[in-house]
Amino acid sequence: GYRVSLQGNFFGRNHTYITFPEYNPCKHIKLDPPFNIESNVTASQCHIWWSVPWHLEEILQYELQYKEYSTPWEVALNKTLPSSLPQIEIEATELHSGVTYTARVRCKVSENEDSYHSQWSEWSQTTVFQRPDVPKLSEKILITGTMQLLIIPLSFGTLLYLFWNFNLSSRWQKASPALTFPRQLLSFSHSIICTMETLR
Q1: CDD domains in the record, alphabetically (predicted)?
Q2: Residue 47's domain spans which residues?
Q3: In terms of DSSP bridges, do strands 127-130 and 100-109 run parallel, antiparallel, or are they unpaired?
Q4: Residue 17 falls within a domain, yes or no?
Q5: Residue range 41-64, pLDDT digits in tens
């Protein structure tokens, strides 16, 4: 431990001011930033990793920051890593296809560590990566699948419509003789009346 004091001459008098009566350097650490940051992108995810001194790996925590290459860091996305492993995987769904990104990382002593305390380090150097464009074949497959999903209900609806119309048409034809029955009955009645008049 240390005792930190400030001495000075003020208005012709020497004064000593105790700034830290008990200063413990291990509680006020500022680490060097991670180094050798690299990235690798696949169709499903982006893998980013970096290096730190090996004897510090187990007590550190990290914060990753990434953004589109052409935008300022003020709009970057931040991820605090849940483990002390010097790596992270970003799902491809979080990245736009064909867009170039840049990322950086910083570190500090984990909050769970009792022996040491620190503030965040400076940001590391950056790594640049890009999610590949979605293949056109996949787009065609997606369009074909969508068309198939649309054609099935449309076909079913058309068949249902034709069946309904055919059924109504059949019922109409069966009902037609009943509709002509009153005319036949009137003709029959007229014949009977004529016959009765003849007999008279």
Answers
A1: FN3 (cd00063)
A2: 26-131
A3: antiparallel
A4: no
A5: 988 899 999 999 999 999 999 999
The token pair at 46 is 């982006």
Q: How many CB atoms lie within 10 A of CB 52?
A: 21
For residue 77, is it within any domain?
yes
For residue range 116-153, list pLDDT tens digits in order.
899 999 999 999 999 877 655 455 555 666 766 777 77
The four Cα atoms 37, 40, 46, 50 give a dihedral, to 10 degrees, of -20
Structure tokens at 55: 């004897």
Angstrom distance (rounded) from CA 141 to CA 163: 33
> 3-class SS at 186?
helix
Q: Would residue 196 count as lying in a domain? A: no
Structural domain includes residue 94: yes
Number of domains in the chain: 1
